[in-house]
Structure formats: C-alpha cells, structure tokens
Amino acid sequence: MYCPFCRNPDSRVVDSRIQEDGAAIRRRRQCPQCGRRFTTIETTSLTVIKRSGVGEPFSRTKIINGVRKACQGRPVTDDDLALLAQEVEESIRATGSAEIQAHEIGLAILGPLRKLDQIAYLRFASVYQSFDSLEDFEAAISLLRSEQPHPQPADH
Questions:
Q1: Which of 4, 11, 47, 121 is 20–30 Å from 27 (CA)?
Q2: Which candidate, 86, 104, 85, 113, places its Cα nearest to that of 47?
Q3: Helix/strand/coil (H, E, C) string of 11-74?
Q4: Furthest-apart CA pair in the chain: how many Å?
C-alpha cells in the first residue's frame, strides 16, 4: 500500500476493525518513511459474470445508469438512485458469493425499484423480464395492486 503523502511503497498496519457488518475491514496504517497515518478500507472483490461468460468488476454506476433510463420523467433523485444501487450491492454481497450472474443483479434491482417508484419498476421489468404482451403488463400491475395496503373504511 503506497503512502498517499510521500508515495513510499510500504506501510505498517496500526489498527484493524471490521466495518459494514463484516463486509469490509478498516485499517489504520502508518508510513515508516514520513510517519504520517492514513486509513484504508478493504472489501472483497465482486465479479459479475455476463451472458457471454466474461467476468467484470461489479459497478454501482452501471446499476444507476440502467435504472436511470426507467426513471426518466419520474420524481426520482440521483440520491434515490445511489441508495438503490447501495441496497442492491449490499443484498448481493450478503449472499457471500464472490461471483454473481448479471441476471441475478437484475432480479436484485426489481424489489428496491418497486418500493422506490412503481412506474419506473414497470418500465424496468418490462425490458428486463421481456414483456411481450399487454397481459404481461396487466399481470405485473395486478401484482402491484395486490401488494398495496387497502384503506380502511371510516367509521361514521
């Protein structure tokens, strides 16, 4: 680990602590050359296996960009998208697997997106799940309606 202050290629670990429910380790390091301290965060790498079989590093940015298209014209902020991407990454990392199929990421997006914005969810699901008829949309809408809490009648 290079020192960010003097670029010395060596450092000494002074303290280590587990963070984020065991998903990362925070290390305090000290440079033997300049004596300054700095912090590093270590996480396991997560590889996405694409349909072609090629692996690439997991990217929250790709999730945000993919979902952003479904959210065009909807009241969804960049912060909302960042939180959604974080939730998706956390759920994927919680599986404990170092590799995940790209298809599984799409499935992991559907739940948080449904909570965030139902119209964006329908748009994303229609592409992701290859809707090819009105019946596919009707089934998805019926499912959303069945999950809605029904208002209680007022007592008069």
A1: 47
A2: 104
A3: CEEEEEEEEHHHCEEEEEEECCCCCCEEEEEEECCCEEECCCCCEEECCHHHHHHHHHHHCCCC
A4: 79
Q: Which residues are paired to 17 by β-bridges?
A: 26
How far is Cα of residue 156 from the mean position of the Cα atoms in its chain? 47
Strand partners, 41: 26
* Contact indicator for 118, 101 with CB cutoff of 8 Å: no
In this structure, the chain runs to a length of 156
pLDDT for 97-149, tens place per residue? Answer: 889 999 899 999 999 999 999 999 999 999 888 888 899 889 999 988 888 76
SS3 of residue 4 by DSSP: coil
Read off the tokens for 6.
Answer: 């003097």
d(CA 26, CA 21): 12
Mean pLDDT, the chain, whole residue set: 89
* Interatomic CA distance for residues 148 and 143, integer angstroms: 9
Instruction: Give CA–CA dist 89/103, Å, rounded.
Output: 14
